[in-house]
Amino acid sequence: MVQNFTDLVKASRIPDESADELSASRERKVPGDLQEVLAEKLLFSAYMCLHHVSELKKAAALSDHTTQINNARAVKAQMGRADDSITAKLAGIKAEAQELLGQLEDSYYSSRHKGRPTESGVSEQLRELCALALESHAGQRK
Fold first, then answer.
1. Most C-beta atoms within 10 A of its C-beta, which of 28, 32, 118, 142?
2. Which domain holds residue 48?
3. Three-state secondary structure call for residue 88
């Protein structure tokens, strides 16, 4: 296709008057094709270009851009709401984890609890919270 286009350009070039006639005719000559054949190919290529342009115009005229834009905006708004919801949930988990860690720290450093801490409701909650965090982190990786 590129070679055909190159041949068409060579055949349609205006000869340079300053160059000698023999070299100019050699440059314009396209091997294996007559000028009539080249003209037919050029006309067919122009027709195909016009056909493609008209098809693109039809597609642009018939497509419903306003609906597509509204759909894109609706999806963007839905994603924004989901993002806000997830951010709020994560903020709640963070506050709960900080509270539980604060209680654990108080429990660890208080004089009442010397030695190894015993199992309590707080440590069980902390274990559950860590398990949930690991599950959500593993779910995000997939």
1. 28
2. 2-62
3. helix
The reply to whether 115 falls in a domain is yes
Q: Which residue, 120, 94, 95, 96, is CA-closest to 108?
A: 120
Q: What is the pTM for the complete model shown? A: 0.36
3 state DSSP class of 11: helix
Question: How many CB atoms are closer than 10 A to CB 45?
Answer: 14
Looking at the domain assignment, is residue 71 inside a domain? no
Determine the length of the chain.
142
100 contacts 125 by C-beta, under 8 angstroms: yes
